[in-house]
Amino acid sequence: MTSYLQNIRKKIGNDMLQIATADWLIIQDDKLLLQERAGENIWGMIGGMIEPGETIVEAAVREAQEEAGLTIHSQELFGIYAGKEFQATYPNNDQVSPVKIVFITEDFSGTLQCDEEGESLQFFHISKLPLDIHHTHIPVINDYIAYKASKLNIPVVT
């Protein structure tokens, strides 16, 4: 947790906090990169909170590097998501209501490498996704599947 977020949490405790996140659909050979979250036994997309002073793209690129060891060379806006279905409570009982800015890329380099937030990283074919995906990522992944089937235009805004 960043010092910025720690300072806010000191003031509001575990109460609901609106945050902005930059998240990824990282694709390789029609497979989606997911991270198994440390201590949670659940899979999710790469991404995280946008820090004060960062641009959205800077945050997204930083998160890909930190969480997966990847350097992003180009990206496209996939969608912007918010609403009750994206609210979550973390294992420490912190509640968040994110505005998720999601990018998609197939243009990256590097060797997959987990940080402390992840147990493992794996590319999954969209027809063989794990069942235990974080509930806030399922609508985005479902939109990606619809997009791949040419049933959805991007960017998606909810």
> Which class best fits the helix and strand makeup?
alpha+beta
SSE order, one letter for each helix or strand: HEEEEHEEEEEEHE
CATH architecture: Alpha-Beta Complex
CATH superfamily assignment?
Answer: Nucleoside Triphosphate Pyrophosphohydrolase
CATH topology group: Nucleoside Triphosphate Pyrophosphohydrolase
Can you identify the CATH class? Alpha Beta
Radius of gyration: 15 Å
Query: Percent of residues in helical segments?
Result: 10-25%
Biggest sheet architecture: 9 strands, mixed
Counting structural domains, the number is 1
Beta-strand level of the residues, as a percent range? 35-45%
Number of helices: 3
Uncertain segments are none
Overall pLDDT confidence:
94
Number of strands: 11
Distance between the termini: 27 Å
Q: Which term fits the overall shape?
A: globular
Index terms:
158 residues; alpha+beta; Nucleoside Triphosphate Pyrophosphohydrolase; two-stranded antiparallel ribbon; 3 helices; globular
Characterise the protein shown here.
This protein is α+β, with helices and mostly antiparallel strands and 158 residues long. The chain has a single domain (14-157), classed as Nucleoside Triphosphate Pyrophosphohydrolase (Alpha-Beta Complex), CATH 3.90.79. It is built from three helices and eleven strands, in the order H-E-E-E-E-H-E-E-E-E-E-E-H-E. The strands form two sheets. Strands 1, 2, 3, 4, 6, 7, 8, 10 and 11 form a nine-stranded mixed β-sheet that branches. The longest helix is centred in the middle third of the chain and has 13 residues, at 56-68. The radius of gyration is 15 Å and the shape is globular. The two termini are 27 Å apart.
